[in-house]
Amino acid sequence: MSEDTDIDRLCNRIIEALSAPFVYEDQQINIGASIGVALAPDDANQANELLRCADIALYQAKEAGRGTWRAYGREMDQRLHERLQREEELRVALAEQQLEVYYQPRYLSQGMQIIGAEALVRWNHPERGLLLPEQFIPLAEETGLIIPLGRWVLHQACSQATRWPGDTVVSVNLSPLQLHDDRLLDEIAHALGENGLPGERLELEVTESALLRETQGTLDQLKRVKALGVHLAVDDFGTGYSSLTSLRHYPFDVIKIDNSFVAGIGQSMEDHSIVRALIELGRGLQMRVTAEGVETEEQLRLLKDDGCTEVQGFHMSHPMSADELQRLLSQLPARD
Ligand code: C2E
Ligand code: MG
Ligand code: MG
């Protein structure tokens, strides 16, 4: 018992001491520490095995939010094992084409014409059935697998879009890791070139929160992407707390208002005011505005009344397979 409290006290003292800011060459430096603890001979009695246990505990401490410590426990081995297994499964999924891209149509509010569709990835898991992105995208981001996954989605989407009517646009979500990847530009150019898809028929969506991470580098990258002729959309707008002035500097064509505000417009004055303000902001900055997550006739009516130009949501269409979308598009009257 007393050993436990000693460890506790020692770890907390180290963390506290290391997290105090200090000055180096006139700069204030802030660092922190996470600690993993393993004990000999309880956990292991060989140095390398002991270090392995401490490393696993350290990993858990970091996962618990950093600036804390964890002591090794046997159950951690199990958790790590499960994670490695899930990572391996995702690698196999990529290699064996278990992933599938679904598409959700986006409509023009006036006339309700389909003007594009958003590529949304799914995983046809051999045992667990159809998995949604929230069940595997976070793991793909942590492990870096989002890079090959994102590249695959981009190619699929560009290839599918060539089968759609003339100017229908395909939107592809980019993760922050892709956005900061040096190979991104070549990959977009390659996906367009290989499929013969004109740049203006591809739209890339970047979440507002991804913009917060970096400034100049992100801006430069977005400008280079834009120079390929593709459209850029800021996704989940309103959730990332970026300053409104920063929006002015980024070369976006479209603002996508987050589902959560749209869900509230029939009931909450506050949500409705936010949606109206975002529509107005888009107008002022000469950007198109898409409301996401439109689920009811009333929401659609209010959005139209407020001047929102584009809508997407279950009320019009759920995400569907490429074949289903193809069928839907071919049933529509030809556009002029
Ligand atoms: P997102 O880009 O904001 O996509 C919109 C999400 O809202 C989709 O969820 C869509 O199915 C859902 N949605 C559409 N209409 C409605 C509605 O009326 N009501 C409600 N409640 N939801 C609606 P999904 O497909 O589960 O995707 C979730 C998120 O996963 C996406 O959010 C996107 O951030 C991410 N994601 C999906 N595919 C990819 C991908 O290929 N790459 C990356 N990096 N992220 C992806
Ligand atoms: Mg999106
Ligand atoms: Mg969104």
In short:
This protein has about 325 residues and is of the alpha/beta class. The chain has 2 domains: about 5-70, Alpha-Beta Plaits, CATH 3.30.70; about 90-330, Alpha-Beta Barrel (TIM Barrel), CATH 3.20.20.
What does the model show?
The chain has an eight-stranded mixed beta barrel with strand order 5-6-8-9-10-11-12-13, surrounded by four helices. Strands 1-2 form a two-stranded antiparallel sheet. The termini are far apart. It folds into two domains: 3-72, Reverse transcriptase/Diguanylate cyclase domain (Alpha-Beta Plaits), CATH 3.30.70.270; 88-331, TIM Barrel (Alpha-Beta Barrel). It is 47% helix and 20% strand. Helix 5 (146-161) runs parallel beside helix 7. The chain is built from 14 helices and 13 strands. The protein is of the alpha/beta class. The chain has helices at 2-19, 47-63, 74-95, 137-143, 146-161, 176-179, 184-195, 208-212, 216-226, 244-249, 259-264, 269-284, 297-305, 322-331, and strands at residues 22-24, 27-29, 35-37, 69-71, 99-108, 114-125, 129-131, 169-174, 202-207, 231-237, 254-257, 288-291, 310-311. The mean pLDDT is 92. Bound molecules: ligand C2E and magnesium ion (MG) (2 copies).
* H/E series: HEEEHEHEEEHHEHHEHHEHEHHEHEH
CATH architecture of the largest domain: Alpha-Beta Barrel
What is the number of beta strands? Answer: 13
Please bin the fraction of helical residues.
Answer: 40-55%
| Beta-strand percentage range | 15-25%
**Small-molecule binders:** ligand C2E, magnesium ion
Query: How many structural domains in the coordinates?
Result: 2
The largest sheet is:
8 strands, mixed, barrel
What class would the helix/strand composition place it in? Answer: alpha/beta
- Choose one word for the global shape: globular
